[in-house]
Amino acid sequence: MNYKSKTQRVTWMYNELKNGNVLRKQEMAEQFDVSLKTVQRDIEELRIIFGEEYSPYHLVYSKAKSGYLLDLDVVDVLTEQEILATTKILVESRAFLKNEIKGITQKMYHHLPRERQRMLEAYVSNEMHYYVELTHKSSVMAKVHELAEASRAKQAVMLMYKKEHEPEAKAYHIEPLGVVFSEFYFYVIAESNKPERPHPIAYRIDRIEHLHIKHHFERSESQRFEESSFQQRIHFMHTGELATIKIRFSGPSPEAVLDRLPTGRIIRHEENAVIIEAEVYLRGIEMWLLSQGEHIEVLAPEHLRNRMRERATKLTELYE
């Protein structure tokens, strides 16, 4: 290999190291037809490159392998196991366009040796091949970022928002509280300015055709919106009244119910059931309760119990 240029040699060595190979001084001197001192200077150049703050790698000498290789600072980068698990979550979320998913995963794979990159790609190749984009087929990344920034900076936003069954988009002026992800979609959560609807309102970000950042608004620290707390209490992004419910669960896995109700706790054990109490938004929880069939009985509040009774009656009539 006739690489007389320092740039050519260092580039070749850099790529070899990134692919997980070991560099040995004598072999490189013979390969490049240069002196050992020249190879040493090239190695020092590589130390500088990999010593930059942005690099998670360190160029080290291995006595066991009699050569130079890259030592990965595992504190600063994702491990192979973390990358695989994160990729699986991204693919299953279906939150992004197919080319966006590929771009994100390729960036995560970038710091792994090429052989391991190919292994990870093989693990998820079937899911990627059959990846189905959501019906809206639009990119939401820029809007998610812009709305999150507006929320942080306490800036009001004008949305041109098109609901599913309406022919045209309408203007909405909102004071964003935060951005959350749930069940395939990103939402911006906003304060309601209607006295009859005091709970927060969720706007699906993919339905926003245009947004415009407007004036600054005031929000005290006591009014700070906590995305995690909000998500622990909401189901299917339907809000409604925030209330404490009490249910009797007689199914096989109370653990699965508690995972679905992060604010829930078992307050009593019965012979073949448990009583669970949780704070939730009522509109969304209704939908989930119906999905559990005969395994869940609503005990309180009374108006939710009556609502479930009405729903059960309608279901019975539907199948008669």
Structure characteristics:
320 residues, alpha+beta, four-stranded antiparallel sheet, three-stranded antiparallel sheet, 12 strands
Number of strands: 12
Largest sheet: 4 strands, antiparallel
Structural class: alpha+beta
> SSE string, helix = H, strand = E?
HHHEEHHHHEEEEEEHEHEEHEH
As laid out across the biggest beta sheet, the strand order is 10-11-9-12
Distance between the termini: 82 Å
What does this structure look like?
The protein has 11 helices and 12 strands. By secondary structure, the protein is of the alpha+beta class. A 4-stranded antiparallel beta sheet has the order 10-11-9-12. Strands 4-3-8 form a 3-stranded antiparallel beta sheet, with helices on one face. The longest helix has 18 residues. It is elongated.
What is the strand and helix layout of this fold?
Layout: H1 6-18, H2 25-32, H3 36-50, E1 57-62, E2 67-72, H4 80-93, H5 98-109, H6 114-129, H7 141-153, E3 155-161, E4 170-174, E5 176-182, E6 185-190, E7 201-204, E8 208-216, H8 227-233, E9 242-249, H9 254-260, E10 265-269, E11 274-281, H10 282-291, E12 296-300, H11 302-319
Antiparallel strand pairs: 1-2, 3-4, 3-8, 5-6, 6-7, 9-11, 9-12, 10-11
Compose a concise summary of this entry:
The chain is α+β, with helices and mostly antiparallel strands.
